[in-house]
Amino acid sequence: MREIAYLAWCYLSYHRIKTAILVASIALITFLPAGLNVLVSQSAEELTARAESTPLLVGAKGSPLELVLSSLYFESETPAPTTFAESDRVAETGLAEPIPLYVRFRSRSYPIVGTSLEYFDFRGLRFAAGRPMAVLGECVVGAEAARELGVHPGDFVTSSPEGVFDLAGVYPLKMSIVGVLATAHSPDDRAIFIDVKTAWIIDGLGHGHQDLAAPDAESAVLSRDGDRITANASVVQYNEITAENIDSFHFHGELATYPLSAVIAAPHSEKSRALLLGRYQDDDASQLVVPTAVMDELLETVLTVREYAVAAVAIAGSATLMTTTLVFLLSLRLRRREIATMMKIGASRSTVAAVLISEVAVVLLLGGILAAGLTLATSRFGSAAIRALLLS
Amino acid sequence: MTGARSKLECAWRGGLIALLVCACSGEDPVGRAPTEREPDELLVYAVNYPLAYFAERIAGDLAEVRFPVPADIDPADWSPTPGEIAEFQQADLILLNGAGYARWLEHASLPRGRRIDTWSGFRDRLIELRGGVSHAHGPSGDHSHTGTAATTWLDPTLAIEQARAIAEALAQARPPRAAAFRKRLAALVAELVELDAQLAATAAKLGDTPLLFSHPVYQYLERRYSLNGRSLHWEPDEAPDPKMWRELETSLEDHPARLMIWEAQPPAGTTRRLDELGIRATIFSACANAPAEGNFLSAMRAGAAALEEMGELLSPP
Questions:
Q1: How far, in Å, CA of A35 to CA of A28, rounded?
Q2: In whole angstroms, what is the distance from residue A12 CA to residue A363 CA?
Q3: Considering only A342-351, A367-376, B285-294, which range has the smallest mean pLDDT?
Q4: Is any Cβ of chain A less than 8 angstroms from the Cβ of B5?
Q5: In the predicted structure, residue B204 carries a pLDDT above the cut 80
Q6: Which of A220, A217, A244, A248 is nearest to A232 (CA)?
Q7: How many CA atoms are closer than 13 Å to the CA of B187, on its beta-carbon side?
C-alpha cells in the first residue's frame, strides 16, 4: 500500500505544474459556491443584526426601506420628515420608549445624528473618552470618525452645508466634542451624535443672536414699534454655542412641529409591540415599520441573486469536472508505455489501477483541503470585510 | 487594667459624639453632599426646592433627593455647568416644574424617560404672561421671549398635583414601595390642604384690599385666592431708583394699595419710604430655594400668618 502511495506521489510531484492546475481548479470550483454561501449568510446576519436590535421605527409615510436604511445605517436619502409630536405620541401611549432621530446633516462625509441620550443606552454604546452631550452645541464622535478626523474631547467639528450653493440653507455650526465612543463595529462608529435640539439649530429652526433690546444692538435694529423690534440683516447670529451666548439661543414655535427623520420605538413588552403596531395600522400620515421585516424583504432579493450565482457556478463546476476527467483519460493514453513497463516488471493490473486511482484521490483531496481553507478564511474575515463595505 | 478602661471610655465617648453629630445633621437632607446610596435607593434631582421638598417627604429614606442650586441663587435663573448637568443625567428621576421654569432646561440634554413633568396634570391652568418684547428677523416672522408664570406651587391645589405626580413617578420607579409612597403622599397632601385653608382664610380677611407684589412671581397665589394685586419689578436687595418710585406713585392713583408683599426683607430705606406713602411691607417667600430656617410648609405658613396679621391691621375697625 505504501508503495502504491509512493508511486502516485512521485508521479504527481514530477508533474507538479499539471497537478497544481488540477488542484487549483478543483479547489476554486468547490470554494465558489461554498464561499458565496458563507458570504451571503454573513451579509444577511450583519444586516439583520442591527435591524433585530431596532424593534420598531416610526416615520412619515413613504419608502420603508429608505426609513430603515437612514435610521439604522445613516445612509440613503433622508426620508420624508415626521415631527417631534410623533415622539410624544409614542411616549403618551405608554407602550414604548421613543428615541428621536434626525439624520440629515453631515460633517464632511460623517453623518450627524440628532438624537437623545437614550440612544447610547439603547445601542449599548460605551464611552472611550469624555461624556455624553450635556448642552446645546456639544457632540459625541464615533470611534472610527474620531480616529480618521484625529479628534479628541476638547476639539471641534463643524457641520457641512448641504450643497455648494446652499448658502442660506443649513446653518454651519461649530460643535465642541465632549466624548468619543468605544468601537462598536456598527454604523455608530462613523457617526457624530448631537442632541436633537442642536440638529434643529443646524436646520435654522433655533438660533442665538445678540439681544435686540440691548443698547449695543442699535445698529442691528431696522425698526421699533412699541414692543415689536424688527432686525436688519446685520444682526449678529452665533455659529458656535458657548457658555457666554447659550442663553440667547431659542426656538421659534412649537417644538412638537419640528422635524425628525424617524423615531425608534422600544416597546416595553411583546404585547405593547403588538398594540403599538395596531395603533399605526390605519394611520394616514405616519408609518410604523418592523426593520427586520423590511430587511428580510431586501435579503430575499439578495438570496435570489445568490441562487442564480450558485446555479451558474454549478454549471461551471460540471464543466470543470468533465475537463478534469478528460485530462486524466488523456494522460492514461500518454502513459501507455509507463503502464506497460510497470506490468513488465511485475505489477498486477489491480496495482496499476490502484496507483492511478491514488493519483486522482490525492488531487481531489488537495483541492478539497484548499477549498476548505479558503471557505474558512472567508467565514473568519468575511464579516470584517462586509462591515467595512457597509460602513464605507 | 486602667489602660483598658480608659480605651473603653474613649470609644464610648467617641460613639456618643458620632451619634450626636448624625442626629444633628439628619434634620433636612435636601441638598446634602453626595453619599454612597443603597442599591434600592433612588437618586432624584429637582429643579427647585418645593419639588425637592415634596420628593423628600414622599420618598423618605427610599430616595436620595438632590437639589444642587446654591442657596443664594434663584433656581429659575440658575445656569448649571455642563458638569452639573451631567450629574442630573445620572439621576433615576429628574423633577421638572414646567411652565418654562428654569431656562437652562431648554439648552440641556436630559434623558427624556427620566424627566418627570410635574405640571402635566394642569397644563390648561397655567397662567400665560402678557407683554415682553417681540422681535422679527429672517423669514420666521415675529416672536417674543415671554412665556408662562412658573411659581405654580404658590397655589396649594397645584402643589398637590405636583406632589401626586412625584409620588406616581416614584411608585413606577419602585413598584414594591408604592404603598409607602402613597401613605407619605397622603400626609403631605393633608398639610397642603391645611395650608390652602389657612391662605383662603387670610384672603377672606384681605377681601378686595388693593395689594402690591414686589415682583411678578405671585400670579398663582393671586388667582387662587382672588387677591386684588399688582406686580412691580423691585428686588429686595436693591434700592428702587427715582423712576421706580414715580411709577409706584402713578400706580397708586388707580390702585391705592396699603400693603406690599416682598419675597425677602427689603432695605430699611425702602420700608421707611413705603411707610411714608402709607404702604406696609410684609414678607411672603416664594420659597423657590430652600429657606434659611424650617422647610417649605413652615415658610408658607409663616408667609400666610404675616399676611393675615397685616390683613387684620389694615381691616377697618
A1: 10
A2: 8
A3: A342-351
A4: no
A5: yes
A6: A220
A7: 12
In chain B the domains, ranked by start, together with CATH numbers, are 30-121+148-199 (3.40.50.1980), 200-314 (3.40.50.1980)
Please name the residues between 121 and 160 in chain B that touch chain A, using a CB distance below 8 Å: 131-137, 140, 142-145
Sketch the domain layout of chain A as residue ranges. 2-47+298-391, 56-205+252-289
- Cα angle B304, B310, B311; round to 5: 85
Decide the pairing of beta strands A192-195 and B142-144.
unpaired
Q: Band the pLDDT of A56: cuts 50, 70, 90.
A: very high
What is the average pLDDT across A70-83?
A: 88
Of all residues in chain A, the one with the smallest CA distance to B143 is A252
Which three cell numbers, joined as nine digits, stand for B176?
A: 414594591
Facing A136 at nearest CB: one of B107, B132, B133: B107
pLDDT of residue A168: 57
Instruction: Show residues of chain B in contact with A212, CB under 8 Å.
Output: 133, 135, 137
DSSP 3-state of A222: strand
User: What is the DSSP code (8-state) at residue B44?
Assistant: E
Backbone angles phi, psi at A160, to 5 degrees: -100, 150
Average the pLDDT over B45-50 and give the result: 97
List % helix, strand, coil for chain A (3-state, nearest 5): 55, 20, 25
